[in-house]
Amino acid sequence: MQPADTKSVLRHLGIPQLNPMQEEVRKAFALHQALACIAPTGSGKTLAFLLCVLDHLQEVAPGQQVLILAPTRELVMQLASVFRSMKTGFSTCLCYGGHDMDREIHQLRAHPACIM
Question: pTM for the full model?
Answer without folding.
Answer: 0.87
